[in-house]
Every structure is written in structure tokens, then in C-alpha cells.
Amino acid sequence: MSFRNRCIIAGANGLIDLSIPIEGSRNTAAFIRDVKIDNVLKWQMIHWRGITSAYNRAPWFEFYADELLQFYETRYTYLWDWNLDLMYWVLKQLKVEVKVDFTDRYEKQITDEDIADYRNKILPKNSIRYAGECPVYSQVFEHRLGFHPNLSIIDLLFCEGNNAAGLLRS
């Protein structure tokens, strides 16, 4: 299980796991570029309803909602394409300029000391371990459920808007 096809948001009744269904097995060793989305299921509609229910009262929801909705109205074949487009959209919203490079082959060991390898470190089953690295900010249901670290970046965007990038730098 990995975050390559899932994220977690906070709803009125607690955490909500949004998972994009994939075709075939759950083989986590498959190359991400080869993983196809199972579009037979109505996952996009389900996800968008969950996002809207969880964040329609967030201070920045209306600011980002229309652009984010495009990801839930566009049919993607490959998970890689959906993730890449969403990553570029998030970077644009955060006004963060980073150089994104891709390898042409999988390397089991990263030997370059300048590269941090988190491929097998932050997983759904152990993400709470990295909670200390998350900024604390006001969340929609924090008054009822407490603060939840390590949620999807959309939680931070909807709740903090233009302040999101600054919180990530601190």
C-alpha cells in the first residue's frame, strides 16, 4: 500500500481515505507509468463529493475549487498522468519553483548523498511517524476532532490559501 493512488482528508466525522482504484493487482512494484486507473468505478464523483463535503466551509475552498474540479472531471487512463498533472497544479498554487527530474530506470539504492530517498519511508501505515515535520494550522473540523497532521495538500490549501507555502517552509 502506498500514497501513489491515495490521500487522506479530514471530514466532519473523521479521516477519509480517498483511493483511486487501479486496474489489475495491487502490485506496488509495478512501474508507476504502467499503472492504469480503473475508470469503471465512479471514483471521481465519490472523491469530489467527499472533498466538497469536507471543505465547502474552508476559507479558501471557493478560490481553488473550480481548478481542482478539473481533475475530477477529466478522465485519465494512467495514474502517472493524474499524479503528475496534480503535482504541477499544486506547485503552481504554492508558487513554488522546483526542478522536477525523472529517471529513465529504477534504482534500488540511491547513492547520491544530495538526494533524499523517501520511496519506502512515508507509507499509509506509518505516516503518523512523520507528524512532527508537519506545520500546524487551523483545520475545518479541528474544534471537534483535533488537529490531524499529514493530510492531503488540499487540506492545507483550502485552510490556509496563500499562507500554505510559508507554512511548509517554516
The protein's oligomeric status is: single chain
- Secondary structural class: mainly alpha
The span between the termini is 30 Å
* Beta-strand share of residues: 5-15%
> How many domains make up the 3D coordinates?
1
Descriptive report:
- The protein is mostly helical and 170 residues long.
- The chain has one domain (3-103, 113-169).
- The chain is built from six helices and two strands; from the N terminus they run E-E-H-H-H-H-H-H.
- The chain has helices at 43-55, 61-73, 79-94, 142-145, 153-160, 164-169, and strands spanning 6-11, 14-19.
- A hairpin with a 2-residue loop joins strand 1 (6-11) and strand 2 (14-19).
- Helix 1 packs antiparallel against helix 2.
- The protein is globular.
- The chain starts with 5 loop residues before the first strand and ends with a helix.
Key words describing this protein structure:
6 helices; two-stranded antiparallel ribbon; 170 residues
List the helices and strands and how they pair.
Layout: E1 6-11, E2 14-19, H1 43-55, H2 61-73, H3 79-94, H4 142-145, H5 153-160, H6 164-169
Antiparallel strand pairs: 1-2
Brief summary:
The chain has about 170 residues and is mostly helical. The protein is built from six helices and two strands; from the N terminus they run ββαααααα.
